[in-house]
Amino acid sequence: MGEHHLVIGGNAAGMTAASRAKRLSPSLAVTVLEASRHISYSICGLPYWLSGRVPRFDDLVYFTPESLQNERGIAARLQTRAVELLPSRRSVVVEDLGSGRKEVLRYDKLLIATGYQPASLDVEGVDAKGVFTVSRIEDGQAISDWLDSGRAQQAVLVGGGYVGLEMAEALRGRGLQVALVEKSAAIFPAIDPDMASLLQSELEANSVRVFTGRTVGRIVTRSDGTVSGVELAGGHQLQADLVLMDIGVKPRVDLVQGSDIRLGGSGAIAVSERMETSVPSIYAAGNCAETVHLVTGRPGFDPLGTVAAKQGRVAGENMAGRVSYFRGAVSTTAVKVFGLAAARTGLTTEEADREGFQVVEARVEGRFQASYFGGKPSTVKILADSVSRRLLGAQIVGSELASVRIDVVATALAARMTVDEATQLDLAYAPPVGTLWSPLLIAMNLLQRRMDGR
Amino acid sequence: MGEHHLVIGGNAAGMTAASRAKRLSPSLAVTVLEASRHISYSICGLPYWLSGRVPRFDDLVYFTPESLQNERGIAARLQTRAVELLPSRRSVVVEDLGSGRKEVLRYDKLLIATGYQPASLDVEGVDAKGVFTVSRIEDGQAISDWLDSGRAQQAVLVGGGYVGLEMAEALRGRGLQVALVEKSAAIFPAIDPDMASLLQSELEANSVRVFTGRTVGRIVTRSDGTVSGVELAGGHQLQADLVLMDIGVKPRVDLVQGSDIRLGGSGAIAVSERMETSVPSIYAAGNCAETVHLVTGRPGFDPLGTVAAKQGRVAGENMAGRVSYFRGAVSTTAVKVFGLAAARTGLTTEEADREGFQVVEARVEGRFQASYFGGKPSTVKILADSVSRRLLGAQIVGSELASVRIDVVATALAARMTVDEATQLDLAYAPPVGTLWSPLLIAMNLLQRRMDGR
Known about the structure:
Number of strands of chain A: 25
Largest interface: A-B, 70 and 70 residues
Number of helices of chain A: 12
Oligomer: homodimer
Low-confidence stretches of chain A: none
């Protein structure tokens, strides 16, 4: 009889690991345990379903337990939460969330892929009806129901991260008045404030009111328990019949607390390059596990679906008996809000300063497409370390065709390129899709001149 | 008194070199000699001016001699051809093409940036009125005049390279019937035939008749000396009142023939990493000079404006007394024809075979953008060497947003990445601008599996 592998968590990392292990080792029995009602869904697609661009809810879900069994030979149990690890017995205690019944499942190898959980606001009124976080697909359904009920005309988004920006657009698209509250001095801390201000202008140009440097004092509720407003610290009150909170996430690691599985300094599970935890035969992958940042060389918490999927792939290969390594990532992300796309990779200026690099930066405006093909100026910022001359990171705000060029710098970072090497990258040009001097190269040239004091 | 530098050729390499040298060393006197009537023009924009997308001819020209003098302090002499080098006297004999008068100009440092010249067809009738090549901006004006005269209803394009494809679209846009004749078995040899067939389908879907594996027997002329058709070898005759020939280019090196300036094996001028020729104080840059291919490690002829500009920059820095190196390039190019974009980098399968690599290839269809954002499947092909596991090249045919991703592979090639490293590139994802698994990564994963025989 073959081995039995358990995977806790049925999303990017868990699903990829289960699929990869089963494909490499078809005799394996693989079971995926998932606490929610769905596996294998696109949480990133949620704003686009709420806005109506994704036509059906089912379009967000890639597999049902049935199709997963039929197409990949993998079992999935929904609404099943792992509640206790018993490593010495190679077992997990799981609870059926429907019946409350507990059960002990044995494994030969175990993957923990529990992802992240949203931070919640510790203020009066957060439990009011109409107040949501957005981290599981069910949250989206609840928001959709609330919108469909017609009760929501004014939304307040707390937190100006990815979710805040994308939901601002989605809710404007549904005809709501939208305000966004961000506690930092600038929205979207994934990029530097001077770049984020371009996104703020885009929000405001689309009638989203933006309040930066403001925190929430309390959620105001009606007598029927529904939300009626958000009171900012200091007193200003915003009317609201829908509140979405996206004030950060942390690794979902309750399950391993108190076990021998070591957490890293970031609070996420420490893993080897083979995605193994400190306890033999137990792997971790995805947003509950640490990721080595290839610029700093150190592990950290960097909750991204793309990284989770790659980690899952490596974990699945190792669980199937292969030897496979995950080298790390460089924090590459993108977002689009109304007509403006933004992307980042590596470190921001603030992050690089904090890491002790001697940061030199270049910021240029330029077109990634001839103007007669509709190319509009985009803004590119690139950072390098003046000691090693290595690139540290980049940010782009502008067109879609501009934002995807961030991958060039992401690739250069993975290769530990210096700015001197990067000035000579041989990038494609044809008038419909590029310019003779890519703004990336113009920025690299400027960065090189700055480093040389010319 | 400062030094005097001469630059022969007023386009990408020459203009960039002149500008860079003058900027770094403002006391320099710099003169650009240009045989044609314009400096600093975008030959790549020509099809888009003929189609009307670029509104005015002047939009193709970045500098006039006046603006170059005023803005950059650089002199330019048009219609002035360098006809003889006198290196022992640090002089060049130049001819004023208007008056025929010759003159000897002294230099302290000289840059040869004469670019390429079109190959011409050695058949009867090539000198007929209405038969053109497209390599200088004047060619574009002549074609435009011919079109404006209303004589052209049926065009035959000889050669299915960049110019052939872009002109096919431009001339269809002007309402002409268009046929394209390519002597190879597939059009657009910059990419593999299986990829080029996608472009051929796109041409045919836009009513361009494509004849592959056919050569031109003769150009048929009317008694008034105008073209009336193209007879293919074997006899088939195509009616034509406009013929454009783009059957390849070669380095324009007449000037150095018979001198001590050494040509490389490719027929272009051999240069050091500092862009210096074998004769001291004489530099060469751009399409008349060789370029080291970073995948093969060997110099060759690779006529691209992007590379020319970078070489010009390095030449200009060295001419100004700095020490600057050009490492090489990886043959990255792009083209768009009707609704389809294509890009390549590195080596094609045929090129890699010829170089003796053990080629493994992966070809996938995938979306670079969620389908609900209009993402259509694009085709990605990636090649690696099974011995070293290094990437060798890639080709993409599909949307614009897909084609620009070629730069990721171009960057990976410059960094000599293996396919194993490339499977883990941290590329950006957000539904409007990417997919969780980029088709690039899907292709890399497939390539890795193929190399491992799984």
